[in-house]
Specification:
alpha+beta, 147 residues, 5 strands, 4 helices
């Protein structure tokens, strides 16, 4: 009974926060501030709404990195560093994914046995035809996403 009450309470709290709107504004010192209720008399921009509010609500959830970079003249030094850090992290993640894809291609081309799990959870090995198709898909992924 206690677990059920706790689960209902936790679920209702999550549901309430999922419907919250997020606003962005600059405070008196010029710092970028986010919150669910902007202070009176401040020009605030709605940056996130409930996902069911519209078809492009997801696009409005966060400012695009290009928008952040183009507005760099009004950003503080800390905000510019944060934008640069996020860009560096994205680039590092892309580089790691490319390296993992290259490693997978080497394994596929080496002839070693490659196994997957099917929809029943059973392990099955790639035959020559499936290996060739996977090599072509992996090469295409590398051409599209990696240098």
């Amino acid at each position: 009974m206690r677990r059920t009450c706790l689960a209902v309470l936790l679920g209702s709290l999550l549901a309430v926060t999922a419907h919250a709107q997020v606003y962005q504004w600059r405070d008196a010192e010029g710092r970028l501030t986010y919150g669910d209720q902007p202070p009176p008399g401040v020009d605030a921009v709605l940056v996130r709404t409930h996902p069911a509010a519209g078809s492009n609500a997801r696009a409005a959830e966060a400012p695009a990195p290009a928008a952040e970079a183009s507005d760099s003249t009004t950003l503080s030094a800390a905000e510019r560093m944060a934008v640069a850090e996020r860009a560096r992290e994205r680039e590092e993640a892309r580089a790691r994914a490319c390296q993992e894809t290259r490693n997978y291609l080497v394994a596929l081309e080496s002839g070693q046995r490659i196994a997957r799990f099917n929809e029943k959870g059973e392990r099955e090995f790639l035959d020559d035809k499936a290996r060739f198709e996977q090599i072509e898909r992996t090469r295409q992924t590398l051409r599209e996403n990696c240098n």
